[in-house]
Amino acid sequence: MKAHVETVEPTVEQETAELQRLYADFASEHLVPLWTQLDELMPVSPAPAARPWVWRWSRLLPLAERAGALVPVGRGGERRAIALANPGLGGRPYATPTLWAAIQYLGPNETAPEHRHSQNAFRFVVEGEGVWTVVNGDPVRMSRGDLLLTPGWTFHGHHNVGDRPMAWIDGLDIPLAHYLDVGFFEFGADRLTNRATPDLSASERLWCHPGLRPLSGLQDTASSPIAAYRWPYTDRALREQLLLEEEGHAATVEPGHAAVRYVNPTTGGDVMPTIRAEFHRLRAGTETALRREVGSSVFQVFDGRGSVVLGGTEHELERGDLFVVPSWVPYALRAEQQLDLFRFSDAPVVERLHFARSRIEESQR
Amino acid sequence: MKAHVETVEPTVEQETAELQRLYADFASEHLVPLWTQLDELMPVSPAPAARPWVWRWSRLLPLAERAGALVPVGRGGERRAIALANPGLGGRPYATPTLWAAIQYLGPNETAPEHRHSQNAFRFVVEGEGVWTVVNGDPVRMSRGDLLLTPGWTFHGHHNVGDRPMAWIDGLDIPLAHYLDVGFFEFGADRLTNRATPDLSASERLWCHPGLRPLSGLQDTASSPIAAYRWPYTDRALREQLLLEEEGHAATVEPGHAAVRYVNPTTGGDVMPTIRAEFHRLRAGTETALRREVGSSVFQVFDGRGSVVLGGTEHELERGDLFVVPSWVPYALRAEQQLDLFRFSDAPVVERLHFARSRIEESQR
Amino acid sequence: MKAHVETVEPTVEQETAELQRLYADFASEHLVPLWTQLDELMPVSPAPAARPWVWRWSRLLPLAERAGALVPVGRGGERRAIALANPGLGGRPYATPTLWAAIQYLGPNETAPEHRHSQNAFRFVVEGEGVWTVVNGDPVRMSRGDLLLTPGWTFHGHHNVGDRPMAWIDGLDIPLAHYLDVGFFEFGADRLTNRATPDLSASERLWCHPGLRPLSGLQDTASSPIAAYRWPYTDRALREQLLLEEEGHAATVEPGHAAVRYVNPTTGGDVMPTIRAEFHRLRAGTETALRREVGSSVFQVFDGRGSVVLGGTEHELERGDLFVVPSWVPYALRAEQQLDLFRFSDAPVVERLHFARSRIEESQR
Amino acid sequence: MKAHVETVEPTVEQETAELQRLYADFASEHLVPLWTQLDELMPVSPAPAARPWVWRWSRLLPLAERAGALVPVGRGGERRAIALANPGLGGRPYATPTLWAAIQYLGPNETAPEHRHSQNAFRFVVEGEGVWTVVNGDPVRMSRGDLLLTPGWTFHGHHNVGDRPMAWIDGLDIPLAHYLDVGFFEFGADRLTNRATPDLSASERLWCHPGLRPLSGLQDTASSPIAAYRWPYTDRALREQLLLEEEGHAATVEPGHAAVRYVNPTTGGDVMPTIRAEFHRLRAGTETALRREVGSSVFQVFDGRGSVVLGGTEHELERGDLFVVPSWVPYALRAEQQLDLFRFSDAPVVERLHFARSRIEESQR
Q1: Chains with at least 3 CB pairs less than 8 angstroms from chain C
Q2: Would you give per-residue pLDDT tens digits along chain A (365 residues)?
Q3: CB contact C231 to D (< 8 Å)
Q4: How far is D335 from chain A (nearest CA, A)?
Q5: Does the CB of D239 have a partner CB in chain C at under 8 Å?
Q6: CB contact, 8 Å: B297 with chain A?
Q7: Chain D residues whose beta carbon lies within 8 Å of the beta carbon of residue C213
Q8: How far are the Cα atoms of A272, A357, B122, B315, B333 from residue B301, in angstroms, in the given order?
Q9: N or C: which end of chain C has fewer CB within 10 A?
Q10: Which residues in chain A are closer than 8 Å to D55, comparing Cβ atoms?
Q11: Which residues share a beta bridge with C142?
Q12: CA–CA separation, B270 vs D213, rounded Å?
């Protein structure tokens, strides 16, 4: 703020021993004055410590494979998950201040034992198959393009029944829950409670009929009762939006940019109270507006090729690449080929606490 | 109420000319005393004027066909619709105090012109095909088993492009809107604004992907944005519930009784603010509990054979038959064969005004 | 609608015996065609049967006094209440299609026994004192200017502990509950459960502290937990609005027109699910805009002198006079002296069912 | 978690150079494995870094007075506020992870200039008078026992018109806004926009009438429109709860423990989206249950004498003392004399994100 106004500068005379004594007495009483901290505490606009950053799938996957060879999975460590650690966040395993994003790796016949925790979690599968995640006893197949939910306090474990390893992305609100001191954790079965491998989970069979709600499920729930959002539905929804746009309907977010939000069918709102999940598709040649949004996001390229302009720097993007958009950092997407991106963010937190703002900038390109 | 307490009976002395003069003076001032009306106005439990009643499809359809031959459809009369007139409601075309239910009939190449009104409407198709309803310019195919919505103040018209006549059921809140004096009406195009006959409406292509919400549709709406709820989805949802029940899951309303509610995907609530729509399937041999519910319903048999015990009387049921359950009248369903029923009701009105009650009775059979 | 478009008139040829036979067959099957009824069923804008009407306090009160002399109050008749019967509503005791409004009269030492019902009720006191209403065992003093609530299914009775009779206005949703078939009724104690006469009810002592909510009352309730809204608060709120307006603040509805809505402090919404209650004060010389609103209202003049233009006719108004504004009938108020009006309406019904509309007309005066 | 189960310990063989190389490669790619961090990241129950702590008013006030003599107040530093720095939170000026609590001090004739920020703020006055805070142009008197709100993005400044200094408590969500990167800040007028010193603010005159809502304020707001919650109302509400309890009503939280929540009258919910404010009164001799709650709180003793058992340690409490209860730390209050406490917390954050839990422990005393 100093740049913008004439401040009341303390005079040299005030910088006396008396003031130093006062500050020392503050410290010994566990007190801190506002006037020496204001600029950092209350900036003119969000000044995130988290940095815009890109992680390459081509570097992540080999490291996960090496971990698969060296580190067992099982009770105690619980998961063979390797987290993105935003370089602005002091080495902690936080992709953004609120969000955890990790690559998880499970070898053939391996099992990640059951547990539950307050933290909300999902998996998104950029490639591979062969793993079932068991959510409160309901086995859920994991396949490319699927979003799988394990909302807070649902028991869950994973097992690979295939003969090939599988890797996917985990997203959680671990940093938020840690920050707010709200997390509880409980171990479940070491082996999974249900080792069946059905094509569809019970939750999908009960809930995945568009516009239909079972009368046995009339109570609204804080998180979605759908354990798996399948790729064929997502793909079709996006394809239809682009076709509808071609036919003259108002179906897309902006020209050439189709997008869906994964929602809780009992409310029409976000899948979980702290995490928003979306899928975006850009027609080849499309460039989005340059946006700023309060709150932080993680994107993963699902398919195609293009780039992101992120805080003024352009980064090429390929399948599996992950990037982070911290709060209020301007970003735009550009599609060379049709570009498919999965996105998750802390937008529900920002919106529920009434801090949401966004702005579309004049393009700087 | 007189049966339950000793009342303060007016004495013979009070039944004097003086009292008669008072009552006459009330009348001339447009006043009515409570004490002479209380029993009728405020009964111990709902005492509906509407009667439980069954209309036979085998009688309705031939009458609709005769109307098709004799009565043109077009501007002014607007629709060739023949309404169920509950025998307890004084000859008015009201299936229940709040609900309109009619059979509508459209011959080959006929058009019902566009209009809009505050009243909420739907169609449900028990048989046939060949008609498209055009809702705010979006053509919507009508086929057996589909539920089609035209919420309040959406323009809509119908045209039959086939070479056979088609009949279906209309449901509206006409009586309620008339009672509350809330209705507006406006004519639209005489010919339809869009004569295309696509397999899927734009609304379905945008909205009918389970658990996915378009980012272009993030504003919640009072009524569902889905114009058509297709039979294959409904059928599959019900089939899965019965299968899940067999596998030991809690998926049905009661043993052998699967049911879905049609919902607004932006909220998870009812499709329209005044009308609830549901579909029920009973496994062959199932008999439901005997229920009383505040609020009134209309059922139509979609398929199968069975019966309903309605206010103490059992009625055989066949495909297309319609019956009315007035408020607080006990009813139970019995399936000889697998029995499929469409249901609509004024439950959203009752619930939004906080009058809902229900009770399961000990069976009387 | 016929006035507005060229209709498809049935030809003379169609008016044959065949058509007559069809209509007769409809009737015997309890069916009614839409095309002969549309104009009345679905008018271009609300065409209420209820009529704008004014009842004079100077006529009502003497009639109530005569009833006090002739008709006992007690179990069976329950209340000595004389209802406004809108001349458009066929002699039924309905002020509007949804609302009951009555003058209730209780002589010295008389008791109206306890009962409860689904119907929501309130009393508003235009003059007098000496009666306590006991709501779920909590005695509530009734004084001039107070609004007293007895929401659906709360036990309530009244007793006059003074040596003078007292009259007041009752408002209920009796017609709505009767129409919807939602009403239950139960007798309570013949004598009152609590004959104390405290200045303030327990409900007020717990809830009437602005902006403060007891931690023992954190569960939201469908109706307000406040049993009495006291005149001194209402008066002060209105006085402050007019003063704030003079000081340049945006505090009034329109210039010279102060107004408050009585609300449920657990939600900020209407006091009961079906009834809105408001108080309006017009500065001397103020004339309001000419408004149309969907839904029906009853006003009572609390103090002052002025007039209402109601459906094109101007009526002089004095203390205690009651008038009805049916749906969509234009009305404007004019204050000769400062004019205070109590108002209640079915607006919550109209709004919850998404039928609300309003319009300000160009003045016609 | 290690204490509770047999974990899969990495073998000595695995602690090879290969694993070290893998970990080094993780680090250079900004990756962190879960399995080495799980215990700290996801504890069995909340393990807050923040510590239970007590600050003594007798130490705070003299330090604030010394700051008054040495540090000017004005543009740039903005406020002479001295923040509680929880000793567990690394020297940052955070009372808890989410909440800022400071003593602010303003000398005679001093002005704290106007600004606004996304952060939600309130002041609570434990003693003194003479300062007006000007909120969006509305001057608000500050007196002992008052709670004064300046919700996010409202302009506000303070000026002391008396001849004595005044000190009070500021509460904000600064740490939360900083953590989430959601804060914006804007300077306003250097001198205040309105230097009037009315007894009541316009906001109070419009909104502080129990159960009454101005028709000019029908739009719900995220934060309360009431700028000042006055002590006489709070005191009376608490006094009535204790009296009602004596008379046999269910009015208190637990025996001898009266409490009110300050609420937004447009919704009945918390005063601001991120901060809950309450006032608690314990009858002399009362001891509360030992509670654990998810989320963090700050208490200030307003009057009386007693103690708090906080994380197993008992602390004597006197007027003005502040203490912090971190998440899930058990606490109980004990009143020697009647004990009055103001409390604020991040409970709305915890509840809106669906992380709330609480537990009453068997007493350990």
Answers
A1: B, D
A2: 333 334 445 555 556 899 999 999 999 999 999 998 888 899 999 999 999 999 999 999 999 999 999 999 988 888 999 999 999 999 999 999 999 999 999 999 999 999 999 999 999 999 999 999 999 999 999 999 999 999 999 999 999 999 999 999 999 999 999 999 999 999 998 888 899 999 999 999 999 999 999 999 999 999 999 999 999 999 999 999 999 999 999 999 999 999 999 999 999 999 999 999 999 999 999 999 999 999 999 999 999 999 999 999 999 999 999 999 999 999 999 999 999 999 999 999 999 999 999 999 875 44
A3: no
A4: 26
A5: no
A6: no
A7: 260-263, 268
A8: 39, 51, 17, 12, 11
A9: C
A10: 29-31
A11: C131
A12: 30
Place of tokens 């316009």: D202
Say if residues B340 and B304 touch (Cβ distance below 8 Å): yes
Amino acid D170 reads D
The residue behind tokens 């550009």 is A334
Contact B272, B98 (CB under 8 A): no
The token pair at D363 is: 């007493």
CA-based R_g, chain D, Å: 23
Q: Is A261 on the interface with B (CB under 8 A)?
A: yes
Secondary structure of chain B in the HEC alphabet? CCCCCCCCCCCHHHCCHHHHHHHHHHHHCCEEECCCCHHHHCCCCCCCCCCCEEECHHHHHHHHHHHHHHCCCCCCCCCCEEEECCCCCCCCCCCCCCCEEEEEEECCCCEEEEEEECCCEEEECCCCEEEEEEECCEEEEEECCCEEEECCCCCEEEEECCCCCEEEEEEECHHHHHHHCCCCEEECCCCCCCCCCCCCCHHHHHHCCCCEEEHHHCCCCCCCCCCEECHHHHHHHHHHHHHHHHCCCCCCCECCEEEEEEECCCCCCECCCCCEEEEEEECCCCECCEEEECCCEEEEEEECCEEEEECCEEEEECCCCEEEECCCCCEEEEECCCEEEEEEECHHHHHHCCCCCEEEECCCC
The answer to whether B205 faces chain A, any CB pair under 8 Å, is: yes
B325: which 2 tokens? 């359950």
B148, B206, B216, best to mutate vs chain A, most A CBs in 10 Å: B216
Selected for mutation to probe chain D from C122, C216, C220, C253 (highest D CB count within 10 Å) is: C216
Question: Could you tell me the domains of chain A?
Answer: 1-44 (no CATH), 53-217 (2.60.120.10), 228-361 (2.60.120.10)
* ipTM score of complex: 0.94
Q: Which chain D residue shows the shortest CA-CA distance from A151?
A: D354
- Tell me, yes or no, if B82 comes closer than 8 A to chain C by beta carbon: yes
The B residues from 40 to 59 touching C (CB cutoff 8 Å) are: 41-48, 50, 53, 55, 59
What is the number of CB-based contacts under 8 A between chain C and chain D?
A: 150
What are the chain A neighbours of B268 within 8 Å (beta carbons)? 213, 220, 264-268
DSSP A10: P
Q: What is the number of CB-based contacts under 8 A between chain A and chain D?
A: 300
Three-state SS for A125-146 is: CCCCEEEEEEECCEEEEEECCC
Sign of the torsion angle spanned by Cα atoms D13, D16, D18, D20: positive
Residue pair B245/A223 in contact (Cβ under 8 Å)? The answer is: no
Q: Say which amino acid occupies D115.
A: H
Beta-ladder partners of A9: none
* End-to-end Cα separation, chain B, in angstroms: 28
CA dihedral for B193, B198, B200, B202, sign (positive or negative): negative
- Cβ distance B216 to A278 less than 8 Å, yes or no, reads no
CB distance C85 to B31 below 8 Å:
yes
Interchain CB distance below 8 Å, C253 and D215 = yes
> CA angle, C121 as apex, C115 and C124 as ends, to 5°?
120
Alpha-carbon distances of D265 from C210, D174, D202, rounded to whole Å: 8, 25, 15
